[in-house]
Amino acid sequence: MEAGELLAEAARREVREETGLDVEIGAQIDRAEIIGKDGEFHFVVLVFTGRYESGEAIAGDDAAEVRWVAPPEFPGLKMTADTARIIARDTPRQ
Predict the structure, then answer these.
(1) In the structure, what pLDDT confidence band is assigned to residue 81 with cuts at 50, 70 and 90?
(2) Higher pLDDT among residues 82 and 22, named by residue
């Protein structure tokens, strides 16, 4: 976050910077804490709903790739335990 930036503003900016997409940020639905082995880092991630507005998906400078993924592909993706938990909770069953 930047000084004086609201949480939703920061989320919108980060999505734009990391994916090239403009999104409408909705409600905060969860949070996750990612603590590195031996405590070398500690991230607090706030999770919001979002709705695509415009833009073409492109990977930002610290992302290897960006792509749209269908729910059946989720199990094959590398993700944190919290990411898997949140996706499983909020993904409709097919």
Answers:
(1) confident
(2) 22
Residue-range definition of the domain harbouring residue 53: 7-90
* Inside any domain, residue 2: no
Give the C-alpha distances (Å, rounded to integers) separating 26 from 43, 56, 69. 21, 20, 21
> Whole-structure pTM over 0.90, yes or no?
no
- Long-range Cβ pairs for the range 26-31 (8 Å, 24+): 26/50, 26/51, 29/86, 29/90, 30/86, 30/89
What is residue 23's three-state secondary structure?
strand
